[in-house]
Amino acid sequence: MERSEPARTACERNKRHGWRGVCGHRFLQSCEAAGNHPWSSPRLVSASLRPLPDCVESVTVPRSFSVTALVAAGGCRLRAVLSSSSTSYRLPSGPEAAIGTFVHVVREKWACRSDHRLTAAQVFDAEYDIMRQRLRGDPDRAHFAELASTKSPSEWSMIRSQSVLPCTPLAPAAPSMGTSVGKGGIPKGLRIGSEIDLESATLRIRGRADRIDREGAHRWVVRDFKTGSALTPAGEPRPEYVLQMQFYGVMVLEADPSAQVRLLLDDGEQHEVPFDERTAAATRRNLQALAAAMPAPDAAVTAGELASPGPCCASCSHRIVCRAYRAKAPIWWRDYP
To answer: Looking at residues 283-299, what average pLDDT do you find?
Structure first.
């Protein structure tokens, strides 16, 4: 049987996380054997399983979209809307996401610290304790509250090094961007520092750069730290990271139109992302098209108008509240393996 694209994507993912597809397939089989539709099965209200949450029926479109949400959405406007909202239901994340969040928090706390006698290692240890307590208080994530135990000793040592070593040269966090020129020719708000908020009202995007440095007049370096490899198996920067960085570059150019911008991915080694005038222009056109495809800011829209079920559902943390996904998922499961 020829598998659908979402099913093929699921099979590739199951090379690493095979139990997910297998469990879904077996769950479907058990429901069918009992004569039950999978979403209405009495198994869902057993002592060990919770009922599914209600589907999202309508959404309010945000004024701007998270860069990471747009990149990950893969053309699904509903995912972009939900991921850009802090109130949307999300599936519990796994240890990899928790580690990524933790590393970013360490750098942010370091940049915003008031006690400059603290070392980066001390900030790392203090934030680790806080994260551990937070995870222990979450029933869905308590089983991996000790994040270090989810990695081998050498892997955790690498994560610690990648978190602590870049902190030493980091300047304090800067305020949000502006566009007027300040002292020394630096656009006000476009600052050297860590965890810099970027936004473009015209392109309806926002994001937070891990690090921005200045190499000279109107010469900026935007850096994003990654806890895992930033490269594909072929040794090239991962396409989703490239797109994310180029979106950052366009926002820097909006604040400083005369700027020359270098984009660096840092996973322990530095990898430069192409960003010349032609690339910047193409990225801007891409963003303009994305903005034009979105409903007007603050508009109330039915979720079904925006949903586009497909391969990106496999990584979507909102899929469980998406009615379109729920309708498609049983068909995809039948195509597995």
So the answer is: 95
